[in-house]
Amino acid sequence: MSAERARVTVFDTTLRDGEQSPGCSMNHQEKLRLAHQLDRLGVDVIEAGFPIASDGDFEAVKAIAAVVRRPIIAGLARACHPDIERAWEALKHAAHPRIHVFLATSDIHLQYKLRITRDQCVTQARDAVRFAKSLCDDVEFSPEDATRTDPEFLCRVLDAVVEAGATTLNIPDTVGYTVPAEFGELIATIRKRVKGIEKVTISAHCHNDLGMAVANALAAVAAGARQVECTINGIGERAGNASLEEIVMAMRTRPDRYPYETGVATEQIFAASQMLSEITGVAVQPNKAIIGRNAFAHEAGIHQDGMLKNPLTYEIMTPKSVGVPDSKLVLGKHSGRHALGMRCEQLGYQFDRRALDDIYRRFVRLADKIKHVEDHHLLELIRDTHKPAASATPLIEPIPAEQAAAVNVPTPSVPVPEPEPARPFPVVSATNAFGLPLPVHADPHHEQTQQEDYLWGV
Ligand code: KIV
Ligand code: ZN
User: Which of the residues 43, 102, 164, 269 could staple to 130 if both were Cys, CB 3.0 to 4.6 A apart?
Assistant: First the structure.
C-alpha cells in the first residue's frame, strides 16, 4: 500500500515562524538542541531562522547548518540582496542549503506596506530569486498573503519566479483567512496556470487564525501540494501555524482519505513537543490534539469501561505511535467501578464486588470534592475504608504525597489474568490501555456491574 502513496515533504518552521510566537523565542543553544530533535523526528526541511533578523539568529542558523547534516536547512530572506547574502552566509556550509525568499503580493500589502506597484513586485520577486539562485541551487519563493492576492496576479508572479529558478513555490495563507475548499481550488489553479509548474514543488503554509490551518494544509495536499510547512505544537505568529503532529497523524490515521506518506518518525512527536514546551516555558493546552495532556486520557465511565475491554473502542491511534508513554484513565466523578477496580489492581489491591462497592461510594464523594482522584488519594481511601484504625486522615481531605507513599506498602502481587481470545475487527489487542493483559471476567456479577454503570451514566 505504501508504494502507492505520494511522498509529502515536511518543512518544519518551528525555529523560524514558530519562534515568532510571543514567549517562544529561543537562544542559540536551545535552537540547536531542538534542531537535533527535529532531525530525529525525520522532518525533511528545517527552517532554522531568519539570518538578517539578528546576529543571534544568524549564528544559530550557521551552527545548525554546520552540524545537522541530514535534512535541508533553510534560511528566510526578504526579496532583497542584503537579506539573501546574509542568509547564504549562514547557510553556505550546510550539507543541503535552501534560501527561502518572500515578497508580499496582495494589493493591500503592496499599497500600504511595501508601497510598490504590481509591476514592481513582479520585477523585485524575479530579481531576488535570480540572485538567490546564483548562490544556491535550492530556492523557495513565498508570495506573502497569497490567499488575499488576485489569483491572476499571483500566477503572474509565480510564472516569473519559476522562470528565474525557484524550485519550490510556497503558498502562504499568511493571515489564516482561507478555508479548505477555497485553498484547494487555489492550488489547483496554480497547477493549471503557472508555466513550468511541473518542475517545481508546490507547498502550503497555513496560519490558524480561524482554526483551519491543518484542514487547509490537508486540502492543499489533496489538490496537489507536495510540501507542508508546519510547526511543533502549532506555535507561530498569532494563532500559530498548522501543527506538524496533527498533519502527520491525520495522514497516518486516515490513509484512506490522505494516501500520502512522510518521513516523520511519529514516535518522536511527543519528545519534540515536550522539548519545545520545556525550552520555551509555553505549555500545550491540555486538550490539544495528539500531544495535549488529555489527548489519550479517558474520564467518562462508559469510555473507561470500553478502553479497558479494548482500546480501539475509544482510541483511533495509540499513545505509543506518537511516543506518549501510555494512555491514562483519569479517575473522576464520571468514572465507573470497572476503572476504579482496575486502578486498585494496579496499585496492588484486589477487591470482591462488595468491597469495591464500599470504596466506590466513598470514591464518588471524594471525586465530587477534589475532581481528580490521584493514586495517593486512592491509597488513603482504601486504607481508610478497610483498615479504619490505621488512618487518622479524614477521608475526603487530600493527603500529602509523602504520606501517601507511606501507605503504599508492598502488597501481594496481582495475579496476571489470561488474555482474552482474539477479536476479529480491526486489530486485535491482547492488552488494555495500561499495557496489561485484558482481564478474564471471573466475577459472575461482572456483566451486571457494567450494565449498572452504563445505566447510571457513570
Ligand atoms: O506567513 C507567511 O506568509 C510567512 C512567509 C514568510 C512564508 O511566514
Ligand atoms: Zn507564516
Answer: 164
